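Field reference: sequence -> structure
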Amino acid sequence: MNSLQYLKCGNREQKKVYEAVQSLGVIENFKIYHPVICGTYPIDIYIDKSDIDIIMFVEDFQLFSHKLQSHYSDLRAFNIKEKIIRNNLIVKAQFDFKGFTFELFGQNVPVVEQYAYLHMKIENHILDIHPSMKNNIRLLKEAGIKTEPAFCRLLGIAGDPYEGLINYGRAKGII
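Structure field:
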């Protein structure tokens, strides 16, 4: 799935996301990190509060953090933090730009192996088979439920929704 191309050719809101991403220059400025837009916009389940998630493969976190700060620290609501997720260090920067909240996420895992990418791939596959689920996902998201838990609720997957969705994708041969 080429999420950038999909957004460029998508609906009006997706085209606005594409324009904001292009205007921000993140794909070009961070191309060495293989940036991929993930989440709700590429698969058309966004709501008003959705952010633009861009994942990247990072090996030198100090350089990555410095680069994030030098490009985006002057933008509204900029913040950057490090944390550990599933035993992997991640660096995440958030900021507002052109009416959207951006979340740039780097970890030392190739983008096609990161959970955000795998979740999007699984969710897109599910929506291709059951397009009527889109509205129910959006309603759950509007009620404050995050994307992965919303899918798991509708699919009857118990336990940790982030692991549950990965296990579902593996069991169904999606990933």
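Note: The mean pLDDT is 96.
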